């Protein structure tokens, strides 16, 4: 099977031009087929604030009312996505920016209301890779924004780490998939205050132990849940790393 590298980039890295440029420099050097999945939660929060819209997050997920859905559609599907595409074109990489609605890529349903009403947040039902695979095989690089659709005309907001693991799992049926989660730290840390104290090999039991001891917390928990799910579903390698270490492969490897 051909190799396909999927890079997920989010948080601070997409927000700051310097780190985004560094990531794109590394991304274009990756050989073989590739996909870039991006987040942009911090940019959405900033633009919402400028528009006088308050942001509410529960367990790392954005409560997405009508107004917020408009903001995230503009920010993820427009601003962030097209900035990345232009950056890749400038580096000679022929990219196409899409959401989960384009080419019918990702079907989702609105998260059912239990204790919390998340609004227009989508839980993924299935990924249809047929058309995107045609593009990839023509050496076009998809840049995927964290928006999905319900097939009834509604866009939904879906966490970018989840999009990356769902895409990786589907594409693992056709390619040898390497999934990299890039964020601002060098990997999963044993000590939040020591940036170099990286857990190089992380298995599920150690993850749960570190979680129970409060060493792994916040956004890292859903990131790792997504990563382990992808690993279990046939993705060859899952690495949690930063934008500077993509080529060296240093960081936390899920085993
Ligand atoms: N043990 C840990 N090692 C590294 N980061 C951790 C750890 N525990 C919690 N975190 C937090 O997880 C965050 C990454 O999750 P998140 O903010 O969702 O990522 P993203 O940058 O992709 O949006 C880091 O910014 C960090 O503050
Ligand atoms: C439902 C939900 O929470 N969606 C996320 C999608 C963006 C994202 O995941 O961005 P990062 O990777 O930069 O965190 C949000 O709106 O924040």
Strand content: 15-25%
CATH class: Alpha Beta
Topology pattern, helix = H, strand = E: EHHEHEEHEEEHEEEHEEHHEE
Number of domains: 1
Number of strands: 14
Give the structural class.
alpha/beta
Radius of gyration: 17 Å
- SS summary, helix count: 8
CATH topology category name: Carbamate kinase
User: Span between N and C termini?
Assistant: 21 Å
Largest sheet: 8 strands, mixed
Mean pLDDT: 96
Helicity level: 25-40%
> Which small compounds were modeled alongside the protein?
adenosine-5'-diphosphate, N-acetyl-L-glutamyl 5-phosphate
Distinctive features:
8-stranded mixed β-sheet, 24% strand, 255 residues, Acetylglutamate kinase, Carbamate kinase, 14 strands, binds adenosine-5'-diphosphate, alpha/beta, binds N-acetyl-L-glutamyl 5-phosphate, Asp/Glu/Uridylate_kinase, transferase
Describe this structure in words.
- Catalyzes the ATP-dependent phosphorylation of N-acetyl-L-glutamate.
- It catalyses: N-acetyl-L-glutamate + ATP = N-acetyl-L-glutamyl 5-phosphate + ADP.
- It is found in: Cytoplasm.
- This is Acetylglutamate kinase.
- It is an enzyme of class 2 (transferase).
- With 255 residues, the protein is of the alpha/beta class.
- It has one domain: Carbamate kinase (3-Layer(aba) Sandwich).
- It is 37% helix and 24% strand.
- The protein has eight helices and 14 strands.
- The strands form four sheets. It has an eight-stranded mixed β-sheet, sandwiched between helices. Strands 3-4 form a two-stranded antiparallel ribbon.
- A hairpin with a 5-residue loop joins strand 9 and strand 10.
- The chain is globular, with a radius of gyration of 17 Å.
- It starts with a strand and ends with a strand.
- 45% of the residues are buried.
- The mean pLDDT is 96.
- The site of adenosine-5'-diphosphate has 16 residues, from helix 8.
């Amino acid at each position: 099977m051909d190799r396909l590298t999927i890079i997920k980039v989010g948080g601070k890295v997409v927000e700051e031009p310097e780190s985004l440029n560094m990531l794109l420099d590394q991304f274009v050097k990756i050989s073989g087929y590739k996909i870039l999945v991006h987040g942009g939660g911090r940019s959405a929060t900033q633009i919402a604030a400028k528009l006088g819209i308050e942001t509410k997050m529960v367990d790392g997920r954005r409560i997405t009312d009508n107004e917020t859905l408009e903001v995230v559609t503009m920010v993820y599907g427009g601003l962030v996505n097209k900035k990345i595409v232009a950056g890749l074109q400038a580096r000679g990489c022929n990219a196409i920016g899409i959401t989960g609605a384009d080419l019918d890529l990702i079907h989702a349903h609105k998260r059912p209301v239990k204790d919390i009403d998340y609004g227009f947040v989508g839980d993924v039902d299935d990924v249809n890779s047929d058309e995107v695979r045609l593009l990839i095989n023509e050496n076009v690089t998809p840049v995927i924004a964290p928006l999905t659709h319900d097939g009834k005309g509604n866009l939904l907001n879906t966490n970018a780490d989840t999009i990356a693991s769902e895409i990786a799992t589907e594409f693992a049926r056709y390619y040898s998939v390497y999934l990299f989660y890039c964020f601002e730290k060098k990997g999963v840390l044993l000590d939040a205050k020591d940036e170099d104290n990286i857990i190089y090999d992380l298995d599920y039991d150690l993850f749960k132990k570190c979680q129970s001891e409060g060493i792994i917390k916040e956004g890292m928990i859903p990131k790792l849940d997504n990563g382990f799910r992808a690993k279990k579903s046939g993705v060859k390698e899952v690495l949690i790393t930063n934008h500077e270490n993509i080529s060296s492969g240093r960081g936390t490897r899920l085993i």
